[in-house]
Amino acid sequence: MISLSGKEFLETNIKEFIIPSEKVAHVQAGNSLEHALLLLTKSGYSAIPVLDPKYRFQGLISSSLITDAVLGLERFEFEKLETMRVEEVMTKDFPTISIHADFKKAIELLIDHPFLCVVSDEDYFEGIMTRRVMLKQLRKNIYHS
Ligand code: 4BW
Ligand code: 4BW
Q1: Number of other CB atoms surrounding residue 32 within 10 Å
Q2: CATH code for 15-143?
């Protein structure tokens, strides 16, 4: 087994390690909150990317953002799930990372975020880089060096 030095490891390109867009659960900004909550519940993920029809990254939606949005003074106003749109509730405070970025950049961002949305030069969504994948690569590198 060939092991990489720390420097080489940190300079590894993330491209080959991302979960490609077709395998990533996502919603569109114009979808209803009901649709998003269904997808989040069925997929089991706590947060998923929001894309526009051209597959450009718009933001992030999570179960907790949705339940918070429909929380009234005394009860959850679940009827709002049908009328409210994802774009009203999603957070845009989430970093993207270039497909050309290296592990060093990804590790820094993955400290604060469970996954990163990876974008092309033209800003199209290419997939996600997750903490799980990064930790597995780190483990492989530590044990074989
Ligand atoms: O369905 C799952 N399959 C597997 N193999 N692991 C899962 C699954 N759901 C959750 N997990 C595990 C992973 O280790 O729980 C961690 C936290 O899940 P999360 O955040 O809170 O839903 C998972 O860690 P991870 O693989 O490093 O993924 C980090 C985050 O990336 C997930 C979720 O928000 C997002 N994510 C991962 N794969 C995704 C996805 N979002 C949409 N589509 C995907 N395919
Ligand atoms: O309030 C937050 N502040 C910060 N800085 N990051 C947050 C916050 N809320 C969520 N995050 C981020 C963290 O990167 O989202 C990740 C997933 O959160 P989670 O799972 O789905 O609520 C956070 O990743 P983490 O810090 O590695 O934490 C992983 C999981 O451990 C969390 C939650 O289930 C649990 N956890 C962490 N800190 C906790 C906690 N549970 C209760 N109290 C805490 N202080």
Answers
A1: 16
A2: 3.10.580.10
